[in-house]
Design brief:
Blueprint: E1 2-5, H1 10-20, E2 26-28, E3 40-43, E4 59-62, H2 68-71, E5 81-83, H3 90-106, H4 109-117, E6 133-137, H5 141-152, E7 156-161, E8 171-174, H6 176-182, E9 188-191, H7 205-208, E10 215-219, H8 228-236, E11 240-245, E12 265-267, H9 277-293
Parallel strand pairs: 1-2, 1-3, 3-4, 4-5, 6-7, 6-9, 7-8, 9-10, 10-11, 11-12
Bound molecules: NADPH dihydro-nicotinamide-adenine-dinucleotide phosphate and oxalic acid.
The site of NADPH dihydro-nicotinamide-adenine-dinucleotide phosphate has 30 residues, from helix 5.
């Protein structure tokens, strides 16, 4: 049996799963079921203790791409396989989100906004896409698509990952030394890394200081990637032109947090790429069939690596 937890869209997911997997019994939270019959779950942020109820749980499907919150829990049995969504309609959204930030930078919308408030008519110098250096931190399902989309539009795209990668249209690097060289050569830094122990505060005061004056940051990965206090200091001192932030150390961002009102900050409430239920269910159904046939699945999480 597949047990579903997605309180906001329970009915929709229930219907889609039943249509996609007519032979599999499907139950939806908070339905009371024989706990030992549950072998699979499909979830987004279930309450503490949720998984301990199911002694025969084999597979947890995450209804999202990031699994940091799942991996921090203590109620997931060791033998359970965790499978996340890969792209499933999110890569295109992420490319749009990043492009919005890059255009904000390139077409100097932040400067024109300030000028407008002062009723100033002052054309700025033209910057062509080919002169904008975009660095993508994270070359996975999302970062790769974002990078290739921007490269197709003529931007200079560098990418950084944990292991060496070769990706068409993206100049790929990895490792600390490469980051030291890359950040000073970056106009727009796009962060799309997962939250792991290794990536926590990757962008600390020192590394933020490696960016050239006038650079911009877009963070759509996780809030923990950036030391928020260090970011605020850099923004206050005008060392960064602006930050477009979708993710935060604590979500929702506290009402009195200084980021809300900072003149150099644009905030969106964790919406850079939303899960599309139809795509998610199609991918999970395909993975369930692959598991049944002993074929490889997409999105198997490496619990040791943390993503
Ligand atoms: P993937 O797992 O496909 O890719 C992760 C990338 O990060 C890989 O390139 C990986 O390197 C790299 N990476 C991981 N750890 C490190 C490290 N220590 N140093 C350098 N690179 C590292 O993930 P996705 O692209 O699918 O998603 C990325 C993240 O985006 C998710 O984990 C989630 O946090 C976030 N997200 C945010 C959304 C939003 O709306 N804001 C929506 C969806 C996802 P390597 O290639 O070497 O393995
Ligand atoms: C995800 C997210 O990881 O929405 O899918 O952040």
């Amino acid at each position: 049996m597949l047990y579903l937890y997605s309180p906001d869209q329970q009915e929709l997911y229930g219907r889609l799963f039943r249509e996609a997997l007519p032979d599999l019994p499907i139950a939806c939270w908070p339905q009371d079921v024989e706990a030992s019959a549950v072998t699979h779950t499909a979830v987004w942020m279930p309450p503490a203790g949720f998984f301990s109820r199911f002694p025969n749980l084999q597979v947890i499907f995450a209804l999202g791409a990031g699994v940091d919150k799942l991996l921090r829990r203590d109620d997931i049995p060791e033998q359970a396989t965790i499978i996340r969504l890969t792209d499933a309609g999110m890569a295109q959204q992420m490319a749009e989100y990043c492009l919005y930030g890059v255009l904000h930078y390139q077409r100097q919308m932040d400067v024109y906004q300030r000028q407008q408030r002062a009723s100033r008519w002052l054309p700025q110098a033209t910057r062509l896409a080919g002169n904008i250096r975009v660095t993508i931190l994270g070359l996975g399902q999302l970062g790769t698509h974002v990078g290739q989309t921007l490269a197709t539009l003529g931007y200079q795209v560098n990418g950084w990952s944990r292991q060496p990668r070769q990706i068409e249209q993206i100049a790929c690097t990895h490792g600390d030394a490469a980051l030291r060289k890359l950040l000073p050569e970056t106009d727009v830094l796009f962060c799309i890394l997962p939250a792991t122990q290794e990536t926590r505060h990757l962008l600390n005061a020192e590394r933020l200081g490696w960016l050239p004056a006038d650079a911009a940051i877009i963070n759509a990965g996780r809030g923990s990637l950036i030391d928020q206090s260090a970011l605020l200091k850099h923004l206050d001192q005008g060392q960064l032109r602006f930050a477009l932030l979708d993710v935060f150390a604590e979500e929702p961002l506290a009402e009195d947090h200084p980021l809300w009102t900072h003149p150099r900050v644009l905030i969106t409430p964790h919406v850079a790429a939303n899960t599309i239920p139809e795509e998610a269910v199609a991918q999970i159904a395909a993975n369930l069939r692959a598991l049944a046939d002993g074929r490889p699945v997409t999105g198997r999480v490496d619990r040791l690596a943390g993503y």
